[in-house]
């Protein structure tokens, strides 16, 4: 059930009416309705995996109680058991075949253990919620949730179920336990955010997808400039697709009275790689910063800059591996980690750059363009099906054909990207890209009409799948 589908619109309309007009005065019934809706939303994809979701949630609920009430050795036993179950489940569905195949290939033996495994939707996202819940209880940042409906809602919350954001228990659980209030102002702003997310997905991302797919599937027959152009287009495609999903997820959550984690903060205007990752997939990077990077920095603190470099590289290798069982993802993460080394050596890692004027200076524009170039360069690894394909794509980029005129340049696509960049730039200091309540009402209405027209006239409705659903 995709956010952009008629089925979801009907589903949400019925749910919204029941949620606010029938069950509003009874928090327990409202939460129960929310949980049922989340299970229906998830089960619409494949009802068989509801058992896995419910089982994982039940195990996490029980073990969270045990971690909270135990001390010393017992606490550690229950914590380790919870982590093993959560990580083990994720490993089985996402990485088992990869490691078996790699082991067989490494030792040149016949592989008879490869299984036909379907990756459950959203498993990477809800597994990280479970892990953070355990660790927050262990670190006394969170008390175990005693209400099972509240806890199950935290794991299965449907607006952010399939592609995040990865919310922590400390953010979402308290909101589930208190009365929600709907206001016209919040509802209007949430609708604006949903509208902009739909524009990014249906108009920008879906218009670019056929071009990038054509380029990357046929890179051997194309010029280096065309492959490079494809990498640039893919950056805009994945940004529009993923941030579009996040905008809609946050907007739908706000319509239900919830504030969930912001996932993008206009990363295309980042002036260095550290700033890019502070603004890109924020919920994942902040999760790994707290639970992986910070402990590694403490562990490696005696090694000063070398230790910091090692911690960042290990952290980014994990970011790459989180995306899936492919060497290209691991190298994608490694390359981003290596990008940090100049910033660390020059003590510029934590220096934040802000634009000083409405129009960027040449230096600021140069910083942005350089950041985009190195990000696009790494995204070739991200999009390549295999290492062989990645090497082949890089080979085309570094060939003399790089200096030819690229193919597949379409004025329509460039115009759509220009509109996206303009809207983002004008609102780069706001909470989201269409937070335009500060403007004259006629200007706002004009923007709404324009975006709706663009969706109806240029929207590509055949591709409702979001890129990050596969992770």
Structure keywords:
membrane; 471 residues; transferase; AlgI; mainly alpha
Describe this structure in words.
Keywords: Acyltransferase, Cell membrane, Membrane, Transferase, Transmembrane, Transmembrane helix. The chain crosses the membrane at residues 6-22, 51-68, 77-93, 113-135, 307-323, 329-347, 368-388, 408-426, 447-468. It is found in: Cell membrane. InterPro entries: Ac/AlaTfrase_AlgI/DltB (IPR024194), AlgI (IPR028362), MB_O-acyltransferase (IPR051085), MBOAT_fam (IPR004299). This protein is mainly α. The protein has two domains: 14-180, no CATH class; 185-271 and 353-470, no CATH class. Helices cover 68% and strands 0% of the residues. It is built from 18 helices and no strands. It has helices spanning 6-22, 27-45, 50-69, 72-106, 123-138, 148-156, 169-176, 184-217, 224-255, 273-279, 282-299, 304-322, 327-339, 341-345, 362-383, 387-397, 411-426, 441-458. Helix 8 (184-217) runs antiparallel to helix 9 (224-255) and helix 13 (327-339) runs antiparallel to helix 15. The longest helix is centred in the N-terminal third of the chain and has 35 residues, at 72-106. The model has no long low-confidence stretch (mean pLDDT 90).
């Amino acid at each position: 059930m995709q956010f952009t589908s008629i089925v979801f619109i009907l589903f949400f309309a019925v749910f919204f009416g029941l949620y606010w007009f029938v069950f509003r005065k009874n928090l327990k019934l409202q939460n129960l309705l929310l949980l049922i809706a989340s299970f229906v939303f998830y089960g619409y994809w494949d009802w068989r995996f509801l058992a896995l979701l419910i089982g994982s949630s039940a195990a996490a609920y029980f073990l969270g109680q045990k971690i909270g009430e135990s001390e010393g050795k017992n606490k550690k036993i229950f914590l380790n058991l919870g982590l093993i179950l959560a990580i083990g489940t994720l490993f089985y569905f996402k990485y088992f075949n990869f490691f078996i195949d790699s082991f067989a290939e490494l030792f040149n033996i016949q592989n008879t253990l490869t299984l036909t495994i379907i990756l459950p939707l959203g498993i990477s996202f809800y597994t990280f919620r479970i892990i953070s819940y355990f660790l927050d209880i262990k670190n006394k940042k969170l008390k175990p949730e005693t209400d099972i409906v509240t806890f199950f809602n935290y794991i299965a919350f449907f607006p952010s179920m399939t592609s995040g954001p990865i919310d922590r228990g400390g953010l979402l659980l308290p909101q589930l336990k208190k009365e929600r209030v709907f206001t016209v102002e919040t509802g209007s702003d949430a609708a604006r955010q949903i509208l902009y997310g739909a524009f990014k997905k249906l108009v920008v991302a879906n218009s670019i997808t056929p071009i990038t797919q054509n380029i990357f599937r046929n890179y051997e027959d194309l010029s280096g400039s065309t492959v490079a152009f494809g990498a640039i287009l893919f950056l805009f495609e994945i940004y529009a697709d993923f941030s579009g999903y996040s905008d809609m997820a946050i907007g739908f959550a706000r319509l239900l009275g919830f504030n969930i984690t912001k996932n993008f903060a206009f990363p295309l205007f980042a002036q260095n790689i550290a700033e890019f990752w502070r603004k890109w997939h924020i919920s994942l990077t902040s999760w790994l910063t707290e639970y992986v990077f910070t402990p590694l920095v403490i562990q490696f603190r005696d090694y000063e800059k070398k230790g910091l470099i090692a911690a960042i590289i290990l952290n980014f290798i994990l970011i790459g591996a989180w995306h899936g069982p492919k060497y290209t993802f691991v190298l994608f993460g490694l390359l981003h980690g290596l990008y940090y080394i100049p910033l660390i050596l020059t003590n510029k890692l934590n220096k934040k750059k802000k634009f000083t004027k409405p129009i960027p200076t040449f230096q600021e524009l140069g910083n942005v363009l350089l950041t985009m170039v190195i990000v696009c360069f790494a995204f070739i690894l991200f999009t390549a099906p295999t290492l062989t394909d990645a090497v082949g794509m890089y080979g085309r980029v570094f060939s003399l054909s790089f200096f030819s005129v690229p193919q597949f340049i379409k004025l329509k696509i460039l115009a759509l990207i220009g509109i996206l960049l303009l809207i983002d730039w004008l609102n780069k200091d706001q909470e989201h890209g269409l937070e335009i309540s500060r403007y004259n009402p006629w200007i706002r209405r004009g923007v709404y009409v324009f975006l709706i027209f663009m969706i109806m006239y240029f929207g590509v409705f055949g591709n409702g799948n979001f890129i990050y659903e596969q992770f």
